[in-house]
């Protein structure tokens, strides 16, 4: 009887890849000590480079493999930790060693980051927590592959009523209809708005189309008692505030 094994998998009882056998005893794979040291550095509050922080995330999903080359490949492909966890699933799967379970873990990290950032602005007066608003907008949209147009609806005390994505477009355009924006604000009894959209190119500089669209919304909203506090554009390279640039 011929005993067959599946290529790429160890036989039952055989050591996992990366484990050396000497005198009948399996040595710990070299990356185990690295994992312990990296966890200890994290616990001590060390500032880790992006690829090492990414390794910490990969440890659980890939327990029996050296994940440093995978982490470095991800950073090389996408640029940063934030861009890795924000990357589309299909592009993540192009990296050798990345499977569905890893993608799920990365997307959990992305969702957790957004929820944490949103928690910093919920139930607060947004105009007094402007840094938290910017952090939230960047976490939600800065690394999206397509343009998104988001609205933050505020009450009379400038607290967040709702946060909604009104439209998704191409890499450089999202259709926005001022009357639809105002109609939704009236439905929610909002008295103020913060407009937000992203530039996938990374450069947050407002375009002439961005400026015109913002002024069109202000023109429709103003007579109905709805104030547009700001329009924020976010990108990988930073953010731009129409209020700060004196465009509104």
Describe the structure.
This protein is an alpha+beta fold. It has 2 domains: 28-114, no CATH class; 126-241, Cytidine Deaminase, domain 2. It is 42% helix and 16% strand. It is built from 9 helices and 7 strands; from the N terminus they run ββαααααααββαβαββ. Strands 4-3-5-6-7 form a 5-stranded mixed sheet, sandwiched between helices. A two-stranded antiparallel ribbon has the order 1-2. Helix 9 links the parallel strand 5 (192-198) and strand 6. Helix 1 (30-43) packs across helix 2 (50-61). The longest helix has 20 residues, at 100-119.
Characterize this entry briefly.
This protein is 42% helix and 16% strand. By secondary structure, it is α+β, with helices and mostly antiparallel strands. It folds into two domains: 28-114, no CATH class; 126-241, Cytidine Deaminase, domain 2.
């Amino acid at each position: 009887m011929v005993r067959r094994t599946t290529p790429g998998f160890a036989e039952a009882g055989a050591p996992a890849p990366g484990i050396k056998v000497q005198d009948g005893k399996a040595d710990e794979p070299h990356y185990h000590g690295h994992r312990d040291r990296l966890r200890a550095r994290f616990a001590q509050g060390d500032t880790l480079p992006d690829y090492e922080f990414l390794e910490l995330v990969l440890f659980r999903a890939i327990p029996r493999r050296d994940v440093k080359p995978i982490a470095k490949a991800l950073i090389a492909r996408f640029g940063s930790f934030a861009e890795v966890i924000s990357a589309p699933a299909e592009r993540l799967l192009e990296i050798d060693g990345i499977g569905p379970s890893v993608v799920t873990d990365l997307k959990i990290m992305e969702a957790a980051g957004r929820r944490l950032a949103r928690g910093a602005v919920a139930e607060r007066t947004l105009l007094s927590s402007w840094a938290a608003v910017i952090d939230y907008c960047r976490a939600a949209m800065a690394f999206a592959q397509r343009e998104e147009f988001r609205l933050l609806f505020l009450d009379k005390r400038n607290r967040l009523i709702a946060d909604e994505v009104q439209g998704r477009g191409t890499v450089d355009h999202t259709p926005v209809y001022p009357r639809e924006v105002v109609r939704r604000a009236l439905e929610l009894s909002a008295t103020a708005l913060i407009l937000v959209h992203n530039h996938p190119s990374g450069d947050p500089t407002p375009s002439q189309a961005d400026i015109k669209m913002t002024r069109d919304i202000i023109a429709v909203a103003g007579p109905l008692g709805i104030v547009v506090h700001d329009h924020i554009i976010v990108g990988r390279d930073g953010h731009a505030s129409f209020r700060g640039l004196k465009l509104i």
